[in-house]
Design a protein that fits this description.
The protein is mainly alpha-helical. Helix content is 57%, strand content 9%. The model has no long low-confidence stretch (mean pLDDT 85).
Length: 94
């Protein structure tokens, strides 16, 4: 899976010629199953936390960096929850 960042969005796609349709659908379905019921605000927070993690590669800095980017838009507990969710789903590895 590949995630491209633009100023306006995150584009998630499957990469590589080795993927067959049978392999693509489970990957896409996992993402849909996990995140499709979230509000746009929650998806924004999760995407921001993931973006920070991919940039700094340091779990302990995610919360501070999300606050720098988003200001007071999200409470500390919501940020912690998003980080926990990303850890639980394997997008963040300590």
């Amino acid at each position: 899976m590949k995630i491209d960042y633009t100023p306006m969005e995150h584009l998630i796609s499957v990469v590589g010629d080795s993927f067959e349709n049978d392999n693509i659908n489970p990957t896409v379905n996992e993402v849909i199953d996990e995140f499709s019921r979230e509000t746009p605000s929650e998806l924004e927070l999760i995407a921001t936390a993931l973006y920070v993690y991919l940039q700094v590669k340091d779990v302990s800095r995610i919360k501070t960096e999300v606050i720098k980017i988003k200001g007071s838009k999200y409470s500390g507990s919501r940020i912690d929850s998003a980080i926990g969710r990303l850890k639980a789903t394997g997008y963040i590895v300590e």
